[in-house]
């Protein structure tokens, strides 16, 4: 379930309560008159079934309270209540299959922001990837995959394409287009220094067969990117963080960028171009898979998407 916390001007509280009471997916409704100080007003709180959240949030925002008061939504990990069970049963669909769009948009908007922190993480990841290439270390490559923050903008771009949200699309593309060249440029300088010290040699890189998968583009490159993108989007809409970590380890984005830099400094242009191709395949595959997942999952006003219909067919569970 989701916990809804609203600061409502006293004049709008009655209308807000009517909206919340009218939806069977809302429970644990409480009001504290005059409890809010800034902005001034009443504090209204409720728990909302995920399946009902899109409609409830839309109805509350239609009252204009986001401009005159405040609206906060947070996930509730555990709820022990018969009333909550009734609210969940009253809402159509399954909570794990429900995309709460306001929640997803807020998260992807934050993750797609181009700032110093994003560039710093991407740079560190590229440097780790370059070190992994130089030392023939798959463990270091995996570390670079986990540190890389690039899935955020890719997921945001998937959401933007699905919803035709041009501002979010521009924001996501800007984060990727601006951050990758900066990170790769810093990695280029560092790699040249390491080569000058003799820490990286062409012979060692060419003999590093444990990490050949980084630059070798094949049909499974796209397959893995599609599967990882699908798993990543599912983890975002269902709040499965453990699955998202697995996605980071699956895709060859940052390692390909790091390998391209190292290969270019050593004059191994074929491997450099192959690495760039690997990077492009992974980026495109993740975005395409994210869009497909959003298209197949249930949407507002529709109880079950294609996935849900198949599950219902074989599980025998009654439709609510």
TrEMBL record:
<feature type="transmembrane region" description="Helical">
    <location>
        <begin position="174"/>
        <end position="194"/>
    </location>
</feature>
<feature type="transmembrane region" description="Helical">
    <location>
        <begin position="114"/>
        <end position="135"/>
    </location>
</feature>
<protein>
    <submittedName>
        <fullName>DUF389 domain-containing protein</fullName>
    </submittedName>
</protein>
<dbReference type="Pfam" id="PF04087">
    <property type="entry name" value="DUF389"/>
</dbReference>
<dbReference type="InterPro" id="IPR005240">
    <property type="entry name" value="DUF389"/>
</dbReference>
<feature type="transmembrane region" description="Helical">
    <location>
        <begin position="244"/>
        <end position="267"/>
    </location>
</feature>
<feature type="transmembrane region" description="Helical">
    <location>
        <begin position="141"/>
        <end position="162"/>
    </location>
</feature>
<keyword id="KW-0472">Membrane</keyword>
<feature type="transmembrane region" description="Helical">
    <location>
        <begin position="279"/>
        <end position="297"/>
    </location>
</feature>
<feature type="transmembrane region" description="Helical">
    <location>
        <begin position="214"/>
        <end position="237"/>
    </location>
</feature>
<keyword id="KW-0812">Transmembrane</keyword>
<keyword id="KW-1133">Transmembrane helix</keyword>
């Amino acid at each position: 379930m989701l916990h809804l916390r609203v600061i409502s001007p006293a004049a709008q509280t009655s209308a807000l309560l009517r909206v919340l009471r009218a939806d069977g997916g809302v429970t644990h409704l409480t009001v504290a008159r005059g409890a809010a100080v800034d902005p001034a007003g009443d504090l209204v709180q409720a728990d909302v079934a995920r399946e009902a959240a899109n409609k409830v949030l839309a109805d509350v925002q239609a009252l204009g309270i986001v401009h005159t008061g405040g609206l906060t939504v947070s996930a509730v990990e555990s709820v022990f209540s018969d009333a909550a069970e009734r609210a969940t049963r009253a809402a159509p669909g399954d909570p794990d299959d429900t995309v709460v769009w306001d929640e997803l948009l807020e998260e992807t908007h934050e993750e797609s922001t181009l700032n110093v922190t994003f560039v710093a993480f991407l740079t560190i990841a590229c440097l780790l990837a370059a070190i992994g290439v130089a030392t023939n270390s798959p463990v270091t490559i995996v570390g670079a995959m986990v540190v890389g923050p690039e899935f955020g903008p890719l997921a945001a771009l998937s959401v933007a394409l699905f919803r035709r949200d041009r501002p979010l699309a521009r924001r996501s593309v800007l984060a990727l287009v601006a951050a990758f060249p900066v990170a790769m440029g810093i990695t280029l300088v560092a790699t040249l220094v390491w080569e000058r010290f003799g820490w990286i040699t062409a012979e060692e890189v060419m003999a590093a067969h444990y990490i050949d998968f980084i630059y070798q583009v094949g049909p499974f490159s796209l397959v893995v990117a599609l599967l990882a993108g699908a798993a990543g989007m599912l983890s975002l809409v269902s709040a499965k963080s453990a699955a998202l970590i697995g996605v980071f380890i699956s895709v060859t984005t940052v390692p390909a960028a790091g390998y391209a830099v190292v290969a270019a400094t050593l004059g191994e242009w074929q491997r450099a171009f192959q690495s760039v191709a690997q990077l492009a395949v992974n980026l495109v595959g993740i975005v395409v898979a994210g869009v497909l997942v959003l298209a197949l999952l249930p949407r507002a006003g529709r109880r079950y998407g294609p996935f849900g219909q198949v599950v219902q067919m074989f599980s025998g569970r009654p439709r609510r």
